[in-house]
Amino acid sequence: MFTDQGISFQSFLREVQSGRIDPVYLLEGEERYLRRRAISELIERVVDEPVRDFNVSRLDVESDTLGTALATARQLPMMSRQRVVIVTGFEAVNDDVQIEILQSYLADPGSTTVLVFDSEALDSRRSVTGLLRKMARNIRFSRLKDDEASRWVRDYAQSIGGSFDRGSSEVLVSMIGAELSRLVNETEKLVAYANGQPISTADVERLVIHSREHNVFELTDAILAGGREKATRLVHRLLSSGDEPLMILGAIARLFRQMLSAKELMRRNLPNAEVAKAVGMSPWAVTRLNEKVRQIEVPNIVEAIRRISDADLAIKSSLATPRLQLEVLVCNLTQLVSNQQ
Description:
The protein has three domains: 9-140, P-loop containing nucleotide triphosphate hydrolases (Rossmann fold, 3-Layer(aba) Sandwich), CATH 3.40.50; 146-207, Helicase, Ruva Protein, domain 3, CATH 1.10.8.60; 212-338, Zinc Finger, Delta Prime, domain 3 (Up-down Bundle), CATH 1.20.272.
């Protein structure tokens, strides 16, 4: 039995590369790129490439049942010592029979299967969450802070033969956010464009201009300006482009948390550089943030964070559709901001 605190991706890599493979994993957290890397690492270690088509299964519990997924995990592999079964869509399981089946499997997992439960977000109040966190190897994938993502970009660029000027990686993160899958794509484009030369801020600003994260910046700007109709249109655009509702919500939540921290630091008359360091943003981005922070009082920021938390819980609990929850939230936030102006 494990603790429910989870371990980091780096700790997971060290375990797997040293030969430790557990029979059941729970991968949870917003950082999808690293979750995909973790699954790829397990598949690579467990199943030889020629027989992966026969021994890697992906099941969505929203389409099948948890019982079906566990029955698949009990099947013997073909021409391989072990197989990998990846399960998604299990977050809302609350049927007592399915929970009992899961508990029975976790108490005696199949020795020929590595079973992976993969989720962006779990509700701690649900039985399935507590059961998996205690009886599976739990790996946490939290979204990186902006300064951590900036360091990651520099390291990744170096690993593929590129380099960033001082500050240019911060500008990249400020423009598209800290989601690694996007940073990987943009970093690879920039390294190819620079052709062996250091990547400058001008390079970043020239090439990275139409990313979806710009739409998120537009959305938060519209909210702070009290522009309800524009903010609602941007929510529709982001969802139609394939952005995850919780990712959009996370961007809004991150902004208001940073605003609350910045408000207190500004009250103490700290310089922009110290404010930037404390809230995990680049000086370039924090200057832009502070202009908005001065217009909003602390009680309204706190109320906004409370409403964001309510929307997060509603989305995870499947209360109405994520689109509707985001629309209602945007209306509430723009009204809160408008009351300040």
